[in-house]
Amino acid sequence: MGWQSSVLRDERVVFTGIGFVTASLIIFAMNTWLTRWRDETIVTPNPPKTQYITQQTEDSLELKTLDTLLGHYNYAIKETAAKIICDRAANDPGLLETLLWGITRPDYDERVKNLRALAVICVPRVLPMLHTWKAYSAIVRCLELSLDPEQEVLENDGWDDYPLRDITEKMCFIFLEQLVDHYGPEMLIRSKFVERWLSRQNWGRTEEDRQRNFHNYMLYRDNKIKRLADAVRKTGSGRSVLVRCGLMSQEGADDFAAEQADNLNLMDTSGERYNLLLSINMGRTPRAQETSAEEQRIRHRNREAIVVNDGTRPIGRDDIIHRDTEWRVLGEPGQS
Fold first, then answer.
1. Is 233 exposed, middle or buried (0-12, 13-18, 19+ CB in 10 A)?
2. What are the angstrom distances between the C-alpha of 297 and each of 220, 245, 294, 301, 336?
3. Is 99 contained in some domain?
4. How far from chain centre, in Å, is Cα 267?
5. What is the domain range of residue 113?
6. Does any domain span residue 164?
7. Shortest CA distance to 328 belongs to which of 305, 310, 296?
8. Source organism's superkingdom (predicted)?
9. Rounded (10°) angle between helices 167-183 and 108-121
10. pLDDT tens digits, residue range 215-227?
C-alpha cells in the first residue's frame, strides 16, 4: 500500500489525471455540440400536401388552360382535363342543342364531328336530356341523311350487312337503343323512324318481297337495327305504322299480336305451374291454409310425438310414439 500512497502524492500523476478528465469533458462537449449543430442544419423536405380538385377549381380553369392540359404528356392529366370538359358540356343545354343541330347538317364531316362529340358527353346522367322530341327528330334526320341510294336488297339471310354500315348510322343506333331500353319505343315511333328510315331500306321492289325480306331480317338477324325494329313491332302503334309502310301485312300483324298475348299469358301462369310441379315432384299437393283456431290446435296436437331411445342404437320408427286421438307407436302393424 506504500507505493499507492506515493503515487497519489505525486503531482505529475494528479495533473495527468486532471488533464485526462478535462480533455474527455471537452471532447464530449464538442461532440454533443457538433451533433446538435449537424441536426439543426439538415434541411428536411416538407411532405407533399394532398390537394383535391374542387368544383370551384374546375370552374376557374379557362378554356385555353384546358386545351393546353389536353395536350399534356401525362395521361392522368389529359384524362382529368377531358372529364372536366365533358362535365361542362353535359351541364350546358345550349351546347347539347348545338350538337343536335350539327348532326342534321348535310355536310358529312360536320355530322361525324358532332356525333363524336355527342358520344363523348353522352354519360348516363345526360341520357334524360336526349329523351325529347327534338333529340329523337335530330337523330332520325341524321339517319335519313345517311341513306345509301345504291344499297343492295336485304334478301340474303346468311349475311349481316350491319358491320359495313356507315359510322354515322351506327352511332345513331347506339343512342336510339339506349333511349328505347330506358324509355320505350313510343318517342321513336312518333319521330317517324319507320317512315323516314326503316321503310326506305332496300327491302325489295314488290310489296310481297318487302314483307318477306323484313320478316326474314327480324328472324335471322341480331343487331341494333333488328332490336329497334322489334321494339317498334311489339307495340300496337308500331305495328300499325309497319302495316301502313308495307313492311307487314295486316294478317301478319294480327298474328304477331296474338303471339305476344300468348307469351304474356304463359309468363303470368309460369309461376303457378312451377309451384304445382314442384309440389308434385316432392310427393305432396298444395293445401289450403287453415284459418280456424280449432283446426290449427288439432293439427299441432296431432304433430306431437315422444322419442324413446337410450342412445345405444339409431333412432327408428319403433322409438317414436305419435299422438293421434290416443298415443300410439308408429312402428306397430296396421298403424300409419
1. buried
2. 62, 69, 5, 6, 21
3. yes
4. 26
5. 92-248
6. yes
7. 305
8. Eukaryota
9. 40
10. 999 998 889 999 9
pLDDT digit string (tens) for 80-118? 888 888 788 777 778 888 999 999 999 999 999 999 988
Cell of 297: 290446435
- What is the distance between the alpha carbons of residues 216 and 247, in angstroms, rounded to a whole number? 11
CA-to-CA dists, residue 154 to 151, 164, 221, angstroms? 8, 13, 11
Residue 24 belongs to some domain of the structure: no
Would you call 171 exposed, middle or buried from its count of C-beta atoms within 10 A (0-12, 13-18, 19+)?
Answer: buried
**Nearest CA among 129, 65, 71, 62 for reference residue 95:** 129
Q: Where are the alpha helices (DSSP H) in 42-74?
A: 55-60, 63-70
Q: For residues 248 and 242, is the Cβ–Cβ distance under 8 A?
A: yes
What's the domain count of the chain?
1
Query: Which three cell numbers, joined as nine digits, stand for 228?
Result: 329497334
Phi and psi at residue 306, to the nearest 5°? -120, 135
